[in-house]
Structure formats: structure tokens, C-alpha cells
Design goal:
Length: 341
């Protein structure tokens, strides 16, 4: 049976094309009985996968684009992004897709990149890391161009696009509730940018935790950050006159900067001021005072985004999928361990 394609094998085995692709590439997420069935069809037909022939037969490039619409300086200083890209790259390799990377740093960049990625035959689909209000335009343009698309992070408009995220409100609420239970009275927060869904949602979680415990919201204990260590340091300097005894920072790297500012001011951690961060990236455990933080599955974000996108490309899934992954509060030295009910 010459010139067989993945689609032919899928029909003979009674499975989807993406399942055959996973079997051919040794992907672990295939049930044993399904894997055996596909392998039996491959053996009986003498099928030999060939990437170039497969691309021609399906009119696909077997290439996925990753677009990061953010400042280049943030990309190179925030440890979140290497972990996200690791998950995406690993999943692309397992599924026999090539990864193309686009970093948007200006409006001109966006125009040039859009004209390239929307060109027929260059990419099969796109992953966009989003969350800021300004990212909505490039997401909308991808949708208008009928480009298969998955967004990492809840976009401002989410009804018409597949995305993967965590429950940022509830995760932040859990972090701040831990500080309340630990007996902290003046709990401050360093938020993410207020033009981002992640900044808005984690700030809302902070507010809900305090309100649920009958605490008043003190605006003097709220400062905006920018997801950088320097931003965390500066925000903590602004908070010091309000005398917080605890700080919830919306990212680990901001928490590290805030802890440094507290120490430079002569404060002891956690005796004078406790800290909780967000992400649980390796930086959280590098200091002599290890950081209590919310663990989110950043590498899994990337891998799951690829899986969803491949389903969009190969199976045209509808309606849009909204995947919410679990988080976990990891308690370490920076907030103490004693809790009060």
C-alpha cells in the first residue's frame, strides 16, 4: 500500500490523526491498547513516516509559532519565560513539530511578524503568551486570519479563543489567607501591572482574602509592580512607611526584590515582615531565606498549550477550550510556619 499518509493509518486504525502522530513519535500519553492497534496497522501496511511527504500530503508545515508580545528586557530577566518555552519545545519535539519563536517589542515588530505568520503555509498554528490589554489586538488579528490559536494566560476577551491558565484569583486568595491565619495584621501586596489580567486577578484575590476575614482594604498597603526584581524593590520602598508586617508579591522575582529592600531597611524576615511570592521557580529557593510561594505548573502550561493547538490544527476542535490548571501553596521560611485559626 504505497504513499500512505497519517490520515490513512488513522482511518485504518479507527483513531485520530493526532493519535497516530503521537504513536509514531513515541509520545507517552497514548493508552497501550490504542498504541498496539496503531502499531499493528503500521506493521501490516508497511507504512514508513516521512516528515516532508507528510507535510506535502496534508498541506501543513509541521511548524508552530510562539509569539511573546512583551518587552525584550523582561523576557531576558524573568525566569518564567524559559520554563514556559521549555514545556512548549518539549511538546513540539514529542509531536514532531518545529517551533518558530517571535518576540514582539514594538508596533513595527507586530506588523512585520503578523505579515509573516499569517502567510499561508508558513505556520500551522500559533501560541501567544498574553494577559496584557495591548495583546488583544494581535490575538484578534490571528482569529480574523483563521489561524489556529491558543493563548497562554487568560486574555481580556476570552469567549472566542482557546486559552490555558490558572485560577489567579483563588491562588492569590490562598496566599493572603495563609498570612491572615499566621496572625499578620498589616498585609501589603505588590501587584502585577494593572493593565494585565494576571495583575488584576491576583490583586482581586488579595482583596477577597482580607474582606472574607473582616479586614479593611488599606490603599497605602497596595503598590503596583512590573514583574521585575527592581520593580519589587522599588514597590517595597514605597510600602515601608505604611509599616506592613507581611507582603504578598504577585511574582517570585518581585518578592526577591522586595525582601532585599526590607533587609536594606534593617528589617528581619520573617520576624518583622513576612513574604509570599507567586510561581515557585528555582529563584524561590536560592536565597538563604527560602520563599513561601504559590506553585504554578509553568512547564505544563507550555506542553498543554501545544496539545490543545495540535488538536485545533488536526481535528478542528470546537468550541474554544478554557483549561484551568491547579496551583499549590508551598510554605517555606519567608513567612514562618505558625498559623492561627
Amino acid at each position: 500500500m504505497p504513499n500512505l499518509t497519517l490520515e490513512d493509518i488513522a482511518k485504518l486504525a479507527g483513531v485520530s490523526r493526532s493519535t497516530v502522530s503521537r504513536v509514531v513519535n513515541g509520545h507517552p500519553s497514548v493508552r497501550n491498547n490504542i498504541r498496539k492497534r496503531v502499531l499493528n496497522v503500521i506493521e501490516s501496511t508497511g507504512y514508513s513516516p516521512n516528515a516532508a511527504a507528510r507535510a506535502l500530503a496534508s498541506q501543513r508545515s509541521q511548524t508552530i509559532g510562539l509569539i511573546l508580545p512583551l518587552s525584550i528586557s523582561i523576557f531576558f530577566t524573568d525566569p518564567y519565560y524559559p520554563h514556559l518555552i521549555k514545556g512548549i519545545a518539549q511538546a513540539c519535539n514529542q509531536n514532531d513539530y518545529t517551533l518558530a519563536f517571535f518576540l514582539v517589542n514594538s508596533k513595527d515588530d507586530e506588523e512585520k511578524i503578523f505579515s509573516r505568520v499569517s502567510r499561508k503555509g508558513l505556520l500551522d498554528g500559533v501560541i501567544v503568551q498574553s494577559g496584557q490589554q495591548g495583546d488583544q489586538e494581535i490575538i484578534g488579528r490571528m482569529i480574523d486570519a483563521n489561524m489556529p490559536l491558543v493563548v497562554v494566560g487568560r486574555p481580556f476577551r476570552s469567549d472566542n479563543v482557546s486559552y490555558i491558565d490558572i485560577d489567579n484569583i483563588n491562588a492569590a486568595r490562598n496566599a493572603v489567607s495563609h498570612l491572615v491565619r499566621a496572625g499578620r495584621q498589616r498585609i501589603a501586596t505588590i501587584t502585577g501591572p494593572v493593565n494585565s489580567t494576571v495583575g488584576i486577578d491576583r490583586k482581586e484575590g488579595y482583596r477577597r482574602a482580607l474582606i472574607e476575614r473582616g479586614r479593611e482594604i488599606n490603599e497605602a498597603l497596595i503598590r503596583e509592580g512590573d514583574f521585575t526584581e527592581a520593580g519589587g524593590y522599588y514597590a517595597m520602598q514605597q510600602l515601608l512607611p505604611a509599616k506592613p508586617d507581611a507582603v504578598f508579591a504577585a511574582s517570585d522575582i518581585m518578592a526577591i526584590g522586595a525582601m532585599r529592600a526590607a533587609r536594606d531597611a534593617g528589617l528581619h524576615i520573617p520576624e518583622d515582615v513576612a513574604f509570599v511570592g507567586f510561581d515557585d521557580l528555582p529563584i524561590a529557593t536560592l536565597s538563604d531565606i527560602q520563599l513561601t510561594t504559590i506553585r504554578q505548573p509553568v512547564v505544563s502550561f507550555g506542553a498543554r498549550a501545544v496539545d490543545i493547538l495540535i488538536d485545533l490544527i488536526e481535528n478542528c476542535i470546537t468550541p474554544p477550550r478554557h483549561i484551568i490548571l491547579e496551583t499549590e501553596l508551598v510554605i517555606r521560611d519567608s513567612c514562618g510556619t505558625k498559623q492561627k485559626k
